[in-house]
Design goal:
The structure holds 2 protein chains of 2 kinds. Chain A is α+β, with helices and mostly antiparallel strands. Chain A contains 2 helices and 7 strands. Chain B has a 6-stranded mixed β-sheet. Chain B has a 5-stranded mixed β-sheet with strand order 8-7-11-9-10. In chain B, strands 13-14-15 form a 3-stranded antiparallel β-sheet. Classes of the chains: A alpha+beta, B alpha+beta. Chains A and B meet through helix 1, strand 2 and helix 2 of A and strand 12, helix 7 and strand 13 of B.
């Protein structure tokens, strides 16, 4: 089972990043999250990247893309902490009520499949 | 009582005349007296009154798991009214400011040359801004992000209108204007302050059980008054605006956006330089604009011109869109080219007088106290009646609801959408978040009443 993203439901509220960081660190911050929100603001082009154990999921508006380790992301710009340095999603297996990102998202963007 | 779950503990005092910054501790006593947001802003305004202060403050819950906790508040003497005004800053400003390490910023005096304030990692720099003085808002945002090397920098920035001290100049949240209806763009211009740039990689602690309680409240909100609704389009009929604009808004909408942690996506991105359905990353670099400014959209549509394109011209110039549209209406403007020329003239006219009437083209009935809060926010609750938000006169219910939002750091538009966020729930979550057993409904009511009274005096 892996975290799945439906990008067009996303509104960019970013609470998933903060919920994920809270799961690992018990604090409010976006930088420890396995999920990284990406936005080109003037174009309103945005989506979620998820660091998984064996791949990187790009939840892009035009369609999902999965990158294997070592593949380049074209057009990537600065971020708070590069996705490749982040912890891979551990599926919140120890959380009683399931993944915190899924619980936090108001828009049903995230699911486990 | 513990403030580290809500604040970083730092107030920045930026002396623009000296070109230097100092910090003060945010004391537990001040939080106990005034909680946060506009109420603490007022305490700081009184303290620094002789230094022509503008205060930017975060709310008690800003940047926490509390639903829609994205607000920062800009408090100062309005260039339009000459009295105290509180401008709500949503989008990303509130979160970025608090996580940059500053709960409150006091801007004192004026610089003798163009500067910008750069807040990051608990550091505050006053940097020269001659490079972008004269540049429009969009050029300024791009340049600041390029110079400091980070596309995720959030900023409050003025355009030519603010630099020219035009009364209806706004402080803009990145490219997209704001709900500043007090002419604070001109106040920034008078201080030669081009921008405040912020980047927040800090963190806050979280009280035991707080995440769980916030999720419960969020789920009640999602199943409550906002259920089945989204965007600005669903505000049009309830507010009594011209229903013909609903289809115009929908057909030009690309996607809906939400501010930090908000369960209702009111920010609408309009595309007009490419098809609204275009999704690819490789499309036009500047396909349209993002706004929650429904009053401005409604007023520009009423002139018979393409409202989103007119909004973009206002955003670039740093003009308050609804106020600008009211001026264009008096000039009898009916096409986009004439509107563009007229808006450029407005952005250079320091003698311009703002229209005294409400920016909303619908019936508005609010008491004088309402004038301390932004008129860019809908003048009544949207989906549920006023009685769902409090007892008594609907206008006073609106004022108190706004006061609550501006103190706790919740978007004041959202405050009018979600009656599920009751004062009782707020009290419960304040007590839990700050381990503050003495906090109660009476304390909250007192802080709200004091904010209103102090702002009016």
């Amino acid at each position: 089972m892996d975290l799945k993203v439906e990008p067009l439901k996303c509104t960019g509220c970013r609470i998933c990043e903060f919920a994920c960081n809270f799961h690992y660190d018990g604090s409010i911050s976006p930088i420890g999250s396995s999920i990284m929100f990406y936005r080109e603001e003037k174009k309103n082009y945005y989506g979620l990247m998820v660091k998984r154990e064996k791949s990187l999921l790009l939840g892009r508006p035009e369609g999902e893309r999965i990158l294997k380790p070592g593949e380049q992301i074209e057009g990537a710009t600065a971020s708070s902490k590069p996705i490749l340095l982040r912890v891979a999603c551990d599926r919140c297996t120890e959380e009683e009520e399931g993944p915190l990102c899924i619980r936090a998202c108001p828009y049903g963007v995230l699911s486990m499949e | 009582m513990e403030i580290m779950n809500n604040y970083t503990g730092t107030i920045l005092i930026a002396d623009l005349a000296r070109g230097a910054c100092d910090t003060e501790e945010l004391s537990q006593e001040l939080v106990e007296q005034a909680l946060g947001g506009a109420a603490i802003n007022m305490a700081l305004y009184e303290k620094y009154k002789d230094k022509d202060p503008l205060i930017i403050g975060t709310g008690f819950f800003t940047a926490t798991f509390f639903p829609c906790s994205n607000l920062a508040v800009l408090t100062g003497k309005s260039p339009i009214t000459g009295k105290i005004g509180h401008a709500p800053l949503t989008w990303q400003a509130g979160v970025e400011l608090k996580l940059a390490g500053f709960d409150f910023v006091v801007l004192c005096g004026a610089s003798d040359r163009p500067v910008r304030l750069w807040l990051h990692d608990g550091l505050s720099d006053i940097n020269d801004s001659q490079d972008i003085w004269g540049a429009d808002v969009w050029e300024s945002v791009d340049k600041i992000r390029e110079v400091y090397g980070d596309d995720m920098i959030q900023m409050l920035v003025i355009g030519p209108a603010g630099e020219n001290r035009v009364s209806i100049a706004q402080v803009s949240e990145n490219y997209w204007g704001s709900k500043d209806s007090f002419g604070f763009g001109a106040a920034f211009g008078a201080k030669k302050l081009k921008a405040i740039a912020m980047r927040g990689l800090g963190s806050l602690e979280v009280a035991e059980g707080f995440f769980q309680k916030c999720m419960e409240l969020k789920n009640e909100i999602l199943n409550g008054a906002i259920k089945g609704k989204a965007g600005l389009k669903d505000f049009i009929e309830p507010l009594g605006l011209d229903v013909a604009i609903k289809e115009k808004v929908q057909s030009a909408t690309h996607r809906l956006n939400a501010c930090y942690n908000c369960p209702y996506p009111c920010y609408t991105f309009f595309k007009y330089r490419e098809a609204p359905t275009a999704l690819a990353q490789t499309g036009v670099a500047d396909p349209g604009c993002l706004t929650a400014g429904l009053a401005g959209l409604a007023r520009f549509y009423a002139l018979g011109i393409d409202a989103p394109q007119a909004m973009e011209i206002c955003f670039k110039a740093g003009l308050q869109p609804a106020a600008a549209a009211q001026i264009l209406e008096k000039k009898g403007i009916k096409d986009l080219a004439a509107a563009e020329a007229a808006l450029r003239e407005c952005a250079a006219d320091s003698t311009l007088k703002a229209d005294a009437a409400s920016p909303w083209p619908c019936p508005v009935s609010l008491p004088p106290e309402a004038g301390i809060f932004s008129s860019a926010v809908p003048p009544q609750p949207v989906f549920a009646p006023a009685s769902a938000f409090g007892q008594g006169d609907a206008g006073l219910v609106w004022v108190k609801r706004q006061a609550l939002a501006y103190i706790i750091g919740m978007c004041p538009i959202f405050a009018l959408l979600a009656p599920e966020v009751t004062n009782d729930r707020v009290v419960e979550l304040v007590r839990m978040s700050a381990e503050w057993d003495d906090f109660n409904k009476e304390t909250l009511d007192t802080i709200i009443e004091k904010l209103i009274k102090q702002s009016m005096s």
